[in-house]
Amino acid sequence: MFIRNCWYVIAWDHEVLPEALFSRTVLGEPILLYRTANGSVAALQDRCCHRAAPLSRGRKEGDSVRCGYHGLKFDARGVCTEAPGMDAPPAKACVRSYPCTTRNKWIFVWMGDAERADPALLPDNFSNDHPEWHYQPGYFHYETPQALICDNLLDFSHLSYVHEKTLGGSQAIAQARPEIESIPRGIKVSRRVPNVPPPAYYQRMKTFQGMVDRWFIYDFVLPGTLLMHSGGRPVEDAPDDLSRAIRLHSCQTVTPETATTTHYFFQQSHHGTSANPEVVQIIYNALIAAFNEDRDMITAQARNIAL
What we know:
The chain is α+β, with helices and mostly antiparallel strands. A hairpin with a 6-residue loop joins strand 6 and strand 7. The chain is built from 4 helices and 18 strands.
């Protein structure tokens, strides 16, 4: 059912605190995250091998975690190092550990064969941690399958209708024919929309006196990550003149929680030599409004499909 030999985003970096235990389900498997002394993140199955209690209900002890039910202690490899009442724990007493890494503030877990976990397969989410790109991180939980959200991200013609008064602003987006090309592990989609009114949220960031040329250029790669350059410039400006343009970069990824529920991690950043908190908030508020529109539509779609 699921693609397993892939990196999936399980959390934003700020969600996993130094002394806390954090749990989130990915591909139907509950996973415990916690930080070791050097700040790296350990990922273990959140299910004690003794009586299946969630390890996240226990406590962190140094670089190990102790089950809160019967006290078994596991190190960051998932090996049981202590079992109360026994001189030594059974050799087979262990829980699954997952390859885990952090890149640009996203924490990834590898859900397949550990020996195939290759950092070269991580997506280029550069704007999540770049001094010239500024944003507020976002997360939604969906009561729908991952595939329906991927469908939504792969066809931006919906901006003209679902987001007519938020991100879209023009039916010309749906009329513009996208250019689609293959890339490793995915596709690149380019949609250019000339001579259209600026959307409402553009006008809250910068004053445009007339029409704009807009662009949406993104890579969509397995297992469900969108990396998009977008923006708009006054129509009278040359294509390579970005001095009056709004330049945006978005990182969005959808991670299946179960077959019917999904985690959605997202940000849209604006380019600038220094952060403008007002602009960051305007963009974030626009995303939340628009992504709630998406979620409402996709949830209604899922209900119809289930009938």
